[in-house]
Amino acid sequence: MVRRSSLSNISVSLQQKIYNIVGKSADKEAVMNPGEAQSKPSCGFCPCRKNRFTNNKCSRCQTPLCREHTDMLLSVHHGQKLKPKSRVRKWKNTSPNEIRTFIGLAVLQSVCSKPSFDMYFSARESIETPFFVKTMREYRFRLIHKFIHFADNNFLDNDPHVRKLYKIKPIIDHLQNKFRSVYIPGKNISVDESLMGWKGRLSWKQYIPSKRKRFGIKFYMLCESSTGYVYNFFVYTGADTNYGHKYIEQPIAARIVLSLCDSLLNKGHCLLTCMCVCKQTEQFNCTVFTEQFKLSVETVREWPT
């Protein structure tokens, strides 16, 4: 049996090694005593260096805090595995502008789709994309992509649905709020499923043979019919998916539709839903949908025989 004092000495030694690897670019007290650092003004992401370990915006500069969770995760997780010439040793604290640049390049990758990651930063004339190379160096982009972190594990929620999405929950909440605040959809709106291609390890990954991309993450989306603008969405995480607490007494299909459309009820919109959803909510459809919307229309699908 290992004595408690021995474990304490090992822990202190490990923390000291982490600090030696990170170097002067990191806050020594935050690495050695992360619990005490919460109340101290230090932040590598926030320009005024406050609120290092909080999930809120800085009260002084109002900068969204992607924070130094990225820096801390890097140092703690890889502190004992670094080779002498590892690129991780060149890590420097990030900044708001650099995070915005990284996100912009990540979005641009989906616009300029290429077979492999290396092609975006390739210097070969036949496949080069000069904008990527001019904007950010490849090794820096790879490091941020590997260690970027949006949530503090010390505040992990016990809700199974929240726990599954905890690492990206701030991003999901931000996108949902922005989608609803910057645009008001027209009269015709539609609710349906969407499958984002994904073949990695994920407990709620879906397999739908009828889709072109058979493996992926399922979304429930409310979109404007004419433009396809996504006004609201839910990420399906299995049987414990949280659709809100307002329509708990309703059948699951009706609950999904009403939760997505909640902010548009009684405003004269015409809802178009899948026929299978309308069949599941046939009784409820007549009593509520016709009251909340001008009209609820089924989309026609040819069912296999």
Provide structural commentary.
- The chain is α/β, with parallel strands linked by helices and 305 residues long.
- Helices cover 36% and strands 12% of the residues.
- It has eleven helices and six strands.
- The chain has helices at residues 4-22, 28-32, 69-78, 96-111, 130-135, 138-147, 160-164, 169-181, 252-260, 275-280, 282-292; strands at residues 188-197, 206-207, 215-224, 230-235, 270-274, 295-299.
- The N and C termini lie far apart (67 Å).
Any key phrases for this structure?
single chain, 305 residues, alpha/beta, 2 domains, 6-stranded mixed β-sheet, 6 strands, 36% helix, 12% strand, disordered N terminus, disordered C terminus
Summarize the structure.
With 305 residues, the chain is an alpha/beta fold. It has helices at 4-22, 28-32, 69-78, 96-111, 130-135, 138-147, 160-164, 169-181, 252-260, 275-280, 282-292, and strands at 188-197, 206-207, 215-224, 230-235, 270-274, 295-299. It has two domains: 4-147, no CATH class; 160-299, no CATH class.
